[in-house]
Structure formats: C-alpha cells, structure tokens
Design a protein that fits this description.
The chain is mostly helical. The protein is built from 14 helices and no strands. It has helices spanning 2-30, 40-61, 66-76, 80-84, 88-112, 114-124, 139-156, 160-178, 185-191, 198-204, 209-212, 222-226, 237-240, 256-261. Helix 3 packs parallel to helix 7 (139-156). The radius of gyration is 18 Å and the shape is globular. The chain starts with a helix and ends in an 8-residue tail after the last helix. It binds zinc ion (2 copies). One zinc ion is lined by residues 123, 178, 201, 204-205.
C-alpha cells in the first residue's frame, strides 16, 4: 500500500486534476451560472500558467511530497493518531477533517494578517470566478500552504492514504466550488449541508468586504457555520454582484507578471 502511494501519488493527483478540470470546464460551457465579464482567453491562459508554475515550484522546493511526510511520521511514530495507535480507516477520516479545519483556519488567517493577505489577495484579484480561479494562487502562498500542511500532517499523524485523499479532494472541490456552473437552488441547498458549493464560495469572491471575509471553507461547509463566518447569499445576488477587489479593477492584474507582483504592490487592500 505504502509503496503504491509513493509510486503513484503524483500521477493520481495529476490525473484527477485533469479529469475534474475537463468535467467542470464542459459543465460551465453547457450551463453557466453568470455571464463572465473579463476576456476568457486572457484569464484562462494566465491562470493556467500560474497553476503550472506553482506545481513546478512545489516540485523544486520540497524534496518530499506530503504523502512522503505522512509515511515518515508513521515510521517514526510521530503525531497524535500514530501515538494513540488509531487504525488507518477511522484515523484517516479524522485526519481528513482535521486537515480541512487546518485549511479553513489558515484561510481565515490569510485574510487577517496583513503580510499573508498580500499573498492571498492575488487569488481574489481575479475579475471573474470560474474553474481556473480554483488554482490561481500566488506561488509563495502555495509554498507556505505546503509547509503548514506538512506540519499539520506530522502533528496529526495523518495516515498516508488520507493525505493523498485530502489532496485529491481539495483539488477537486476547489475547482468545483470556484466553477461558474448553474446548480438548481434545491440541489445547492442540500449539497451545501455537506460540501461547499459554487454559490457558497462565490460570496467569498465578492468585492464587498463583509462578503469577502466570509465563507472561508473549501471542502466542508461546517467550519463557517460553527465559527460564525457563514453567509448564505451575496447581497446583490449572483448575477449582479461584482467579483474581485476594489483596488484591483485593472485588467492588467489578469496577466502573469502582474499576478506575481500583486503581493509587493503598495495598495491598502
Ligand atoms: Zn480568500
Ligand atoms: Zn476562492
């Protein structure tokens, strides 16, 4: 099992990314939620370029993958679940929830701490929100997230299978909840009891600050409800709402070099 995970984790992650990306892109084409404002060719080419750049950055900076870290922690007996000797299946499910809570906490922190916000505001500077926004993060934020994730894996003692499952899940749900797809309101209502839906996450990309600072979840919607950051719908509605940040309305922020420069610009938010 462990050898299989080491040998195949990259291929599993890449393959699932490609499959979910194609499904969401087709779904957006067939049933779009709202009319996109910015030029799609510019957004897609640059958002996908930074996604590619991010995967290269992670590969070059980290000598081991997150799954590798989990296997090392298991071998050394580090982490809560390893110390308690929890069996892999229930332990893995607990680990997935704990990792999701970690990501939620990290996301909130990235909105509050000014130096982290500088990095994270790049994700919010997209003038539209669709499947490609789901992977549009600054490389430094991606590297920092990886360090936080690896530390959490060691502290939790997360089983290797659950780390791979979490990475695949987070990747898939991020593309799903950023996508510009139309979901029947009734289905959205039921689905958002267990999963962050596109309508729920779109609120987080609103230009209105109170809405930007809500709905931080990526996988499970429960943390937002539990910690008081849940917002049901955007005030102006999904069609009329403005996506992005007030200080980044210029379409130049949709291009790769400006996206990389966003953390270093002297604007207040
Ligand atoms: Zn955010
Ligand atoms: Zn987002």
């Amino acid at each position: 099992m462990n050898i299989f995970l080491i040998d195949n984790s990259v291929m599993i992650r890449l393959g699932s990314f490609a499959i979910v990306f194609v499904i969401m892109a087709l779904w957006e084409k067939v049933a779009p939620r709202r009319a996109l404002r910015a030029r799609k060719i510019i957004r897609w080419s640059n958002n996908l370029s930074i996604t590619f750049l991010n995967s290269l950055a992670v590969k070059f900076v980290f000598p081991v993958t997150a799954v590798g870290v989990a296997l090392m922690a298991q071998k050394e007996g580090y982490g809560l679940l390893n110390i308690m000797g929890t069996s892999p299946i229930p332990g893995g499910l607990i680990a997935i929830m704990a990792l999701d809570l970690t990501i939620y906490t990290q996301h909130r922190l990235f909105h509050v701490v000014p130096v982290f916000w500088r990095l994270h505001r790049m994700h919010h500077s997209d003038l539209d929100i669709d499947v490609t926004t789901g992977a549009r993060f600054h490389p430094v934020e991606i590297l920092l997230s990886m360090v936080i994730k690896m530390a959490a894996i060691v502290l939790i003692g997360a089983p290797a299978w659950s780390v791979l499952a979490f990475e695949v899940l987070l990747n898939a749900t991020s593309m799903f909840n950023h996508s510009n797809v139309l979901l029947n309101r009734g289905i959205d209502r039921v689905l958002r009891l267990i999963l962050v839906t596109p309508d729920m996450h779109r609120v987080h990309h609103s230009v209105i600050i109170q809405e930007t600072n809500s709905n931080y979840g990526f996988n499970l919607p429960w943390w937002d409800r539990l910690f008081g950051s849940y917002r049901d719908q955007p005030i102006k509605g999904h069609d009329a709402m403005t996506i992005g940040l007030a200080n980044y309305r210029d379409p130049k922020y949709l291009t790769l070099h400006w996206m990389l420069a966003v953390p270093f610009l002297r604007t207040e938010r």
